[in-house]
Amino acid sequence: MPKAYELPAPGEPFDPEVFKLGQPCKRDHIHADGLTLRKRNGGQCIICSRIDSLERQQRLRQDPEYNRKRAAYVAEKRKREGRPSRAKRSEEWHALRRLHAAINRTGKCPSVAQLVYQQQLDYWRDHPSDRLAAIRAQAKHRARWRHMTDTAYRLYHRAKSKARKVVLRGGTHIHLSPIQLWRRWCDFDHSCAYCGASGDLEVEHVVPISKGGEHHLGNIVPACHRCNSSKRSRDAWSWYKAQPFYEDWRWHNIESILNKSKPMTKQINLFAS
Ligand SMILES: [Zn+2]
Ligand SMILES: [Zn+2]
């Protein structure tokens, strides 16, 4: 094997131990001063010699006799070294090779999470029904998580389930947007309309649905779980008056805020007289 060397660019200085300047070659590869860069030993033009060796290789690759000999040599070498042929290598071997190629391409190693995710994707590609089930389960978990952490989301869904209840009882209801409910909760400073407790607040109908109350803003206040379950379907005024935490100003507050939204057709106006 000839010694490998860096080819100096035209006009660049060169190693005089390896190269010399000589007569222009037949293909006119001029390095400097109208002269060609040649090998010190043998005096061949270095660019011509590279071209010749590439052409020789190309000729050899098209020669069936050479290819047969080469294949026999490789097979013999594999047998001697005990290596299986590339076509007989395992799927794991190819996966590892692809991984190495990917690392070389990007220049960084994938994280464990990325590898696990890739395995998951591979599995899902072969099991599409499992993938759908996983997506559904994830959506469920996400909704549950949001229900636990997002007050506005929880409020909206509580109101929606109340509206469903009203529809089932044949009552009147109106679609309430999350922002409307949120504003109503802000009106009461995110605390129970009756006792003033803060925390997890429920959707409370002042005129109970069972007594013909409607599901709309003229009838909805926030209430804590304790007040909501204690009041149940009783009349708001007589129940509230009897509570130890009764306060005049709270009742007037409820009155004035509810009166801002006009009741719909059927409900008797609680505060008319
Ligand atoms: Zn040349
Ligand atoms: Zn309360």
Overall shape: elongated
Mean pLDDT: 87
Helix content: 40-55%
The assigned structural class equals mainly alpha
Cα gyration radius (Å): 43 Å
pLDDT < 50 runs, ≥5 residues: none
Reported for the largest beta sheet, the result is: 2 strands, antiparallel
- Ligands: zinc ion
Structure annotation, total helices: 10
Provide the CATH top-level class of the domain at 151-260.
Answer: Alpha Beta
Give, in spatial order, the strands making up the sheet with the most strands: 1-2
In CATH, the architecture of the domain at 151-260 is: 2-Layer Sandwich
Measure the end-to-end span. 111 Å
What's the helix-strand series? Answer: EEHHHHHHHEEHHH
Q: Would you tell me which CATH topology of the domain at 151-260 applies?
A: Herpes Virus-1
Number of strands: 4
Strand content: 5-15%
Quick rundown:
The chain has 273 residues and is mostly helical.
Summarize the topology:
Layout: E1 19-22, E2 36-39, H1 46-61, H2 64-81, H3 91-106, H4 112-126, H5 128-149, H6 151-168, H7 178-187, E3 201-205, E4 220-224, H8 225-231, H9 236-241, H10 248-260
Antiparallel strand pairs: 1-2, 3-4
Task: Tell me about this structure.
The protein has 273 residues and is mostly helical. Among the domains are: 19-78, no CATH class; 151-260, 2-Layer Sandwich (Herpes Virus-1), CATH 3.30.40. Helices cover 52% and strands 7% of the residues. It contains 10 helices and 4 strands; from the N terminus they run ββαααααααββααα. The strands form 2 sheets. It has a two-stranded antiparallel sheet. Strands 3-4 form a two-stranded antiparallel ribbon. Helix 5 (128-149) packs across helix 6 (151-168). The longest helix is centred in the middle third of the chain and has 22 residues, at 128-149. The model has no long low-confidence stretch (mean pLDDT 87).
